[in-house]
Amino acid sequence: MADPMRIRAQAAGDKATVRVLMSHEMETGQRKDAAGKVIPAWYIQEVTAALNGKTVMTAQWGPAVSKNPFLQFNLKGAKAGDKVAVSWVDNKGEKRTDEATVS
Asked: pLDDT tens for residues 53-91?
């Protein structure tokens, strides 16, 4: 299982800024190891964000995203105390979901 995501959600007026740091190797499938063998592709394919259980964002990613990706987005209508959940699924079928409270 992957390490937990670090999620920060801060309200400002009628919106909240959400910052997410994900822990993932994000291999492209083009690099080689010390023995010269190709390292298989392993990357996040889909990222989803939900506010109080309602999906507010979905992103399709590929192998061009960097290792341990950072994602930032704004949510309209979010207020202090609301729950923001971020989930991802990679090309090997591994999944991760973490949640934070808007402050």
From this structure: 999 999 999 999 999 999 999 999 899 999 999 999 999
The amino acid occupying position 99 is: E
Ramachandran area for residue 39 (φ above 0: left; ψ -120 to 50: alpha; else beta): beta
Distance CA 15, CA 11 (A): 6
Structural domains in the chain plus CATH codes: 6-101 (2.60.40.10)
The span from the CA of 67 to the CA of 74, in Å, is 23
Contact between 12 and 18 (Cβ < 8 Å): no
Residue 18's CB is within 10 A of a number of other CB atoms, namely 23
pLDDT number for residue 3? 85
